[in-house]
Amino acid sequence: MKSRLKKMYVACVIGFMLVSCQLSGQDNAQAQRDRLFKAYMEVKQDITDENFAGSKEHVVQLEKEVQNFRLKGLQLDDMMRLKKVSQTMKTDAAGLKSAQDMKAMKVSFSAITQSLFTIMETMKCTDETVYLQYCPMEKGYWLSYDKEIENPYAASMRECGQLVKGMATGDYPEPVACH
């Protein structure tokens, strides 16, 4: 009887540890996505400010966050679909980091934006509502917290652009752990 109680106790402790580790892993994954989105928004601000010289620190941080980004908590079919998108985003982040001028930086940033939004449609990257917006003149995409257009690509035409799609917290699917 004593041995049986001891085994039950050990099983309960192990169960609580596993649940705790899984919740901690989900918190770490969300923290990683938060850092990625924060780094993205800092680079967007540098582009808005036409601050190519001063953007290097933010670009390096964004590239680091993109390289460290992991597709955790997804169902297998979503993971397989987004794996290629994630790889494309890594390539575009490397291109952003090696950009020699603001024009090349904008092209890479738009490409990263498209990949990031595709990932965001499945994974929650921020608690805020986020909008995908597009500038037809510059042929560039960006993400914004506001529906109102504030084009980071065209300093002389800040209101030029269109809203493509929005994502609010309620739009995300329920997270599912695959491991």
Automatic annotation (TrEMBL):
Lineage, highest ranks first: Bacteria, Pseudomonadati, Bacteroidota, Sphingobacteriia, Sphingobacteriales
Annotated DUF3347 domain residues: 37-125
Keywords for the protein's UniProt record, in alphabetical order: Signal
Protein name according to UniProt: DUF3347 domain-containing protein
Originating species: Sphingobacterium puteale
Record's signal peptide: 1-25
